[in-house]
Amino acid sequence: MAPYLRSIKSFADVNTEGGVDTLQFLEASKGLVGLFDVLGSAAFTVVQSDLTGNIAKVKARYDAAPEKSRTLESLVQNEQGEKKRTATEGLMWLLRGLSFTCKALQNAQANKSEELSVAFTKSYEGTLKKHHNFVVKGIFAVAMKACPYRADFFTKLRADQEGGEPVTQEELETDLNKWLAALSAIVQHMQDFYVEGNYDKGF
After folding, report:
1. How confident is the model over 154-197, as pLDDT tens digits?
2. Is the confidence at residue 1, as pLDDT, over 70?
3. Which domains does the chain carry?
4. Which of 13, 135, 176, 188 has the greatest count of CB atoms below 10 A from its CB?
5. 71: CB partners within 8 A, 6+ apart
6. Are 103 and 118 in contact (CB under 8 A)?
7. pLDDT digits (tens, 9 = 90+) for 83-116
8. What CA–CA distance (Å, rounded) separates 61 from 68?
9. H or E segment to which residue 107 belongs
10. Measured between alpha carbons, how far apart are the two ends of the chain, in Å?
């Protein structure tokens, strides 16, 4: 068994030629959800639940119309005109949740002396906060404060999941930066796609 980031589908391995491959993207997104288990805070259950629910909405659409949903772009385009557009809305929220997580970890990478609670709080304020009501903002405020210490989190990410030799901090940094860069690029591309097509209208 390998360290966590080497045991999951990397966003760097998601095919984006001619569109973002739907199944590969969903598999990589599930890997990101599992990252919150590594964070080890029950306060993040609300984030995991939200991400998992939105992954399920997109997968349900894929299963219902696979030939029209091979890429995220085609999935969204082919759902337009329908009454509910459940997958379009689900993907929109999934992208927001992925953006929140990505920016939090990028903050942590850019500021090595900063604790995770600070990195996640900054990210929340710049991504999800504007979309949340008073109650949800309160839940997230609790979650931010419950972040583990930076050193503990990175030690867990370096660890071999079956007790073998951990990777070095340098190896982890390389893996994490590659993963985050690919995730960031996909999220930005899809959010631009939503804006250009006005696909978020009505939500």
Report:
1. 999 999 888 788 999 999 999 999 999 999 999 999 999 999 99
2. no
3. 19-157+167-195 (1.10.3520.10)
4. 176
5. 18, 19, 20, 21, 22
6. no
7. 899 999 999 999 999 999 999 999 999 999 999 9
8. 9
9. helix 86-110
10. 42
Residue 34, token pair as written in the block = 């599992």
pTM, to two decimals:
0.93
d(CA 70, CA 21): 6
Core vs surface per residue 108-141: b (16+ CB within 10 A) or e: beeeeeebbbbbbbbbbeebbeeeeeeeeeeebe
* Helix H or strand E encompassing 32: helix 22-39
Instruction: Assess contact for 119 and 108: CB atoms under 8 A.
Output: yes
Q: How many helices (H) and strands (E) does the chain have?
A: 9, 0
Structure tokens at 153: 């989190």
CB 174 within 8 A of CB 158: no
**Structure tokens given for 176:** 């994490």
